[in-house]
Amino acid sequence: MNTVSPATAIRNRLQAQKTQAVDNYRQHRSRPDSLLAALRKHTDQAMKELAASFPLPAGASLCAIGGYGRGELFPYSDIDLLILLQRPPEDGDKALLEQFVSSLWDLGLDIGHSVRTIDECLSESAADITIETGLLELRFILGNRKLVSALEARFREQLNPQDFFLAKQLELQQRYARYSETPYSLEPNCKESPGGLRDLQMIRWISLAAGLSGTWRDLVTHDMMTRDEAAKCAKSEQAFKRLRIDLHLLAGKRDDRLMFHNQPLLAEVYRIKATDTRRPSEILMQRYYWAARIVYLMNHIMMQSFREYFFPVKDCSVMIDEDFCRVGQQLDLVADDAFERKPQLLLKAFLVLQQHPEVNDMSAKLQRQIWSSRHRIDAQFRRNPVNKWLFLQILQQPTGIVHSFRRMTMLSILPQYIPVFRKIVGQMQHDLFHVYTVDQHTLMVIRNIRRFTMPEHAQEYPLASRLIADMDQHWLLYVAALFHDIAKGRGGNHSTLGALEVRKFARDHNLDPQDRALVEFLVVHHLTMSAFAQKRDLSEPSVIQEFADIVGTERRLTALYLLTVADIRGTSPKVWNAWKGKLLEDLYHYTLTALGTNVFDRQSVLTQRKNDAIALVRFSGISDEDRDRFWNTLDVAYFLRHEARDIAWHTRLLYRMLPQVGAQVRARPTENNEGIQVMVYTPDRLDLFEQICSYFYEQRIDILDARIHTTRQGYALDSFVVDSAAIDADIRSNVPLIEHGLRNRLNTPLPAQNEPLTLKSNRYVVGANVRRSRTFPLVPLIELLPDENSQYWRLSITAMDSPGILYALANTFKRHQINLQMAKVMTLGDRVEDIFILGGNALDNPRTQMQFKRDLLTAINNLTAQK
After folding, report:
1. Can you name the residues that pair with 781 across neighbouring β-strands?
2. Are 830 and 801 a contacting pair, CB within 8 Å?
3. Which residue, among 334, 338, 351, has the nearest Cα to 405 in the 3D structure?
4. pLDDT band, very low/low/confident/very high, at 539 (cuts 50, 70, 90)
5. Which of 91, 369, 497, 623 is the most exposed place for a label (fewest CB within 10 A)?
6. pLDDT digit string (tens) for 511-534?
7. What is the distance between the alpha carbons of residues 605 and 589, in angstroms, rounded to a whole number?
8. Alpha helices by DSSP H, 81-187
9. Taking phi first (over 0 means left), then psi (-120 to 50 degrees means alpha), and beta for anything else, what does residue 225 get?
10. Are 745 and 693 in contact (CB under 8 A)?
11. CA distance 813 to 47
12. What percent of the chain shows pLDDT beyond 90?
């Protein structure tokens, strides 16, 4: 008869107890603390039973540290243990320790353990803030209780609260940096991200170091926190604990991230229903962000309170005016009842902070009073002319704009003053390239506009910096930025709806009629300039004239350019690149010419472009005759679509190659080292684009931008900007590899293939954008219309990005005998917006045109279905 070992019996019993505890939690939705305490209690008991069969060395103790030390055990959390010894272990002790730890693993527990004496604990905690923090939450489980009491007493004697606070503050800063300094990540970590559980634990740890109990009630008793703040922290703590429990149970492992694919599942757990305009997951995440914002604020206020507690300012207060004073370098109120008597001070506080550079922050008391008084901003407050004036003054200050609006958002002053802003706080954006919630994106756009005015950023934004310096009342751009996305999440056209909101704001704040018209125009058309630059052929005079008719004046053009650049750069670091910037600059300059002469003077632009290129070519020692012989093979569209720098590069490489044999491929790092620019020059043929795309697909190289051109002599002169993880590592070493590899591919004909391609995804790393596209898929959009001159067809494709998508499209072009005249390929995060100018008999017949479009959709869907 087989007998069950003690460890196996304990393991089976423990597993049954855990299962029962989780079932009770799921069925009754009891408080999270009930489950956490039950799991801790059952685990403690299992260890005690285990120690009866596998004892510790004589006089030793087993202690819990970390979250387990707090008495909390999440379903799949690891368990941190300290085995405390009276003396360094001898051989017999080591054997017992190994046996005990092995038996813990046999229980199926995820154990992290250390074996130390009291002296070792104290020595290591003095050098490591993590160990010191763990000892703050030390909890006795079994063994020698007196030994543990001795450690606690000596640890308390050694602990320096001021040093502990400074170390934890540095730790917090490092953690925030790892999570991009924002609670509004689209896939936040509910434990570690700013505004998560760790922020609440930070308050507890520092209060313990200060000699308090670490409870919210105790912080209120010692006047470190108000009752309202304590209640909000306690409520948020329970919500985050529940969320972390449910994440563990959904994943079946320790995972604290709200991944895109888990967000809809969590919404089901919480029984959240969809609305007409929002998914359940969006409602879930907005609730999360509201809670995280409160925790983020409470942590910020408490860290400042602790700093004032540990390092009190001895300087006497200095009066700024009758309402505000400076204490050290912090702004404070003169009278505690100031907001009751003068509610307008809720806005004036931010203005005073901007106007006094000697003050670098608000005191914890002032921030707490602003937060608790935020509800004084009501309809009557918003109608008060003084408050309207104060708000406009905040917008018009030369410094402190970004910090003021971030602080006003954090303290809920901005959502109270502009109620429609409240609706976008924590509003997610599922468009595959925004990486911020709507409110955070709005603040990023304001930040970018502010940077245009700062000399230290002039090199990064040369044209924008020059334009904003000459713009009167550039603060109106901040108004437009505030409202440009304010109607997102409502359904309908957010630009049109946002224009109604900014019109009301401008009217209520008595803006000049021309200024009112400007901000309304900017909100309505904040997407127009990028659409023209990225999707239209800027070499066509009719396109430039159409855009010039929309903007109407140079002032509007300049303002729209500045807002567009700030907006695009505020979506995601991956969306902006130098090529997109140049397209916007070209559109700006072309339109400026059209506005000045009432017509786009293509000849003037062409002449200037050629003159700039001539200067660069002559510098290379190339004769005018050799240059002109090559240039005579190129049409006007080539010179309008390429910069002088690229024209000169092409000329230096190709002026000797007429006539040429075989494909010529050259590559170089892009101007900003963002990738590699590749030039292909070869006799044009139907499958050329397919061959190029097939090479980049097989090498796992992403095509970020493509410009296709055919010379008068039938040669393809194509330019690509490419990128990949491998290229990022060493750009220059990849240049000759691409040149050699692509040249060989082009000189080797592709096998005949009349069937659609079957491509396998070559993505090895599934990033946030890919996870988002799986959870919130983008329906492909295909538009095929005659181009501006009705000579060719303009194909517009919007779809999720996928490895090989251009290769699959090129294969479809070839199978339908489609000639590619021009291409503008744009990658926006995980979305592609590609424009192709095409020709071919298949496009002139409605039946074959429909089949071509169906095959394009099939090619796209076959790829994106793999993601």
Report:
1. 798
2. yes
3. 351
4. confident
5. 91
6. 999 999 999 999 999 999 999 998
7. 9
8. 91-106, 118-127, 129-136, 145-158, 161-178
9. beta
10. no
11. 68
12. 60
DSSP letters of 414-461? HHHHSHHHHTTTT----SSS--S-HHHHHHHHHHHHHHHT-GGGTTTS
DSSP state at residue 57: P
- pLDDT confidence of residue 764: 35
Contact 8, 46 (CB under 8 A): no
Angle between helices 118-127 and 145-158 (to 10 degrees): 30
Digit-coded pLDDT (tens) for 770-800:
555 555 556 788 888 887 666 788 898 888 8
Residue with the bigger pLDDT between 574 and 337: it is: 337
- The token pair at 133 is 């923090």
In the block, residue with structure tokens 């090529």: 579
Q: What is the DSSP letter of 757?
A: P
- Between CA 649 and CA 677 the distance in angstroms is 11
Tokens of 186: 């689209």
Q: How far is CA 528 from CA 477, 498, 521, 523, 600, in A?
A: 16, 15, 11, 10, 18
Question: Which residue carries 């039973």 as its tokens?
Answer: 49
The average pLDDT across 380-407 equals 96
What gap in Å lies between CA 423 and CA 497, rounded to an integer? 13
Alpha-carbon distances, residue 351 vs 197, 331, 373 (angstroms):
33, 11, 17
Q: What is the dihedral of CA 841, 846, 847, 853, to 10 degrees?
A: 80
Question: What does the pLDDT look like over 357-378, one tens digit per residue?
Answer: 999 899 999 999 999 999 999 9
Is the omega angle on the peptide bond into residue 669 within 30 degrees of 0, that is, cis? no
Question: CA-to-CA distance for 862 and 856, rounded, in angstroms?
Answer: 10
What DSSP assignment string belongs to 31-56?
A: -HHHHHHHHHHHHHHHHHHHHHHSPP
The torsion defined by the Cα of 273, 279, 283 and 289, in degrees rounded to 10, comes to 160
Of residues 798, 815, 818, 783, the one with CA closest to residue 864 = 798
